Amino acid sequence: MNRMKQRAALLLALLVLGLSGCREEPAPSTPDVLVPAVMYNGEIYCSTGRQLAGEVAPEAIVGEITSTVPLSQWPTEEGQANFDGLGHPYAVTSDGLLVTVDNEWTLFELRDVEDQPQA
């Protein structure tokens, strides 16, 4: 009797494992989207999502976003961003690049995107 319970438990465990492996994973809700990025000084800076309070010294502002590409592409030109930020200023700090996003200074960090394909 005990052996029969063990077999039933084993069969049930295998059935559960088998069914869970067949479950289809949902597709990402936005599969063709990259992280917001800006090209400055020939390098790609990507958003950390971290907003910084306060003002930026005017002498730290080094440019503004001059053109945009879709969020599914990396910027390829100086001053270009892959989000809606045309005309937004950006500034260099010791932490990285600060860019105004939604009227807040947001930290962007240098990232090597050569190995990361376009979406």
Residue stretches low in confidence (pLDDT < 50, at least 5 long) are 8-28
Strand order of the largest sheet: 1-2-8-7-6-3
* Oligomer state of the chains in this structure: single chain
* Main sheet overview: 6 strands, antiparallel
Helix/strand order: HEEEEEEEE
Proportion of residues in β-strands = 25-35%
Q: pLDDT average, as an integer? A: 80
Count of alpha and pi helical runs:
1
Helix content: 10-25%
**What structural class should be given to the helix and strand makeup?**
alpha+beta
Distance between the termini: 58 Å
Number of strands: 8
- Principal-axes shape call: globular
Radius of gyration: 24 Å
Written account of the structure:
Helices cover 18% and strands 34% of the residues. The protein is α+β, with helices and mostly antiparallel strands. It has a domain at 37-110. The strands form 2 sheets. The protein has a 6-stranded antiparallel β-sheet with strand order 1-2-8-7-6-3, with no helix packed on it. Strands 4-5 form a two-stranded parallel sheet. The chain starts with a helix and ends in a 9-residue tail after the last strand.
In short:
The protein is 18% helix and 34% strand. With 119 residues, the chain is an alpha+beta fold.
Descriptors:
six-stranded antiparallel beta sheet, 18% helix, 119 residues, 8 strands, alpha+beta
SSE layout and pairing:
Layout: H1 2-22, E1 37-40, E2 43-52, E3 61-64, E4 67-68, E5 80-81, E6 89-93, E7 96-101, E8 104-110
Parallel strand pairs: 4-5
Antiparallel strand pairs: 1-2, 2-8, 3-6, 6-7, 7-8
